[in-house]
Amino acid sequence: MMMAKGRGVGMWGGMIAAIFAAMAVTGCQQVVSVDLNTANPHMVIEGNVTDQPGPYTVLLSKTGDYFEQSLVFPTVTGALVTVTDDMGQADTLKETVPGTYQSSKLAGIPGRTYELTVSTGGTTYTATSSMPPKVTIDSLYALQRPAGRGEPGYDVYITFKDPPQPGNYYRINATASNLPLADSIDGRRYRLYTDKLTNGNEMQERIRAGRNIAQGDTITIQLLSIDKASYDFFNTLSDILQSDQAATSLAPANPNSNISNGSLGYFAAYTVDTRQIIIQ
Fold this sequence. Notes:
This protein has two domains: 2-132 and 228-274, no CATH class; 137-225, no CATH class. Helix content is 8%, strand content 41%. The chain has helices spanning 16-20, 228-243, and strands at residues 2-3, 26-27, 30-31, 43-50, 57-62, 64-65, 80-85, 90-92, 94-97, 100-102, 113-120, 123-130, 137-144, 154-161, 169-176, 191-194, 202-210, 218-226, 264-278. It is globular, with a radius of gyration of 20 Å. The N and C termini lie far apart (48 Å).
C-alpha cells in the first residue's frame, strides 16, 4: 500500500494523503496493484483551473513505501506541464518551487474544455475537464435553533437555481472565521450535489453547524460548479473516507481518476461563487 504526500491545490487540497494511505487507486479504469512492503513509486498529479484569476497550480509528486518512517515523498521536478483548451489557448506552466508548476497566461472560462499534459521520465500523462456554466448563490443566511430543540447553535442555509439543462454537479465549501481554514463548519469535508432529481429547481441546502459557529463569526460559502468526472472522483473519495476513519483500513471502492497512465490524483476545471455573512 502506498502513501502520497498531501499538498493542497487551492480549495481542492487536503485529501490526497488520506486516500492513498488506504487503497490502491484506479486511473482511467485500470486498477493499480500495490505491494504493501515495497511499493513502486507512482505519479501523483493534483491540478485545477477555475474561473477566478490565476495563476493556476499543478502539483507533481510520487508515492513512497508504506513503511517509510519519514513519510516525506519526492516531488517531481523538471517536468513539462502544459494546459490547453478547446479554443486554442495554451500555456506552459513554470516550476516555481520543486514540484509546483504555475500558469502565467491561462484564463479559466466557463464552457471550455481543458486538457492537462504532464511529460516526465519518458511517460506522458493526460487529463481533460470541462468547466460548466457558472451557477451563483441566490441567498445565504443563518438561523439560530429554537431553545429546547436539540443541540443549540445555528443552521446555515444556501439557495441557488439549478440550470434547466440536466447533468449539473456541485460542491459546497463552508468555513467560519473561528475555525481552521480547511475545516468545514459541520465537519463534512466533501459536500456534493447533483441535479438528478431536482433538475431546473431552486435548491436549498441546510448546513447544521450547531455550536461550531457563534455570534460575530464570518461564514464563507463557496459554490463550485464541477463536471461529472470531478463529482465522481470526490464522491467515491468521500465514500472511502467515511467507510472507516482508520488510515490502514481497506477501501470499499476506488476513487475514479481522470488522469491517464495509472497516475493518482485529479485534474478539475470548475467555477466558483463566493458569499459571506456575519452571524448576528
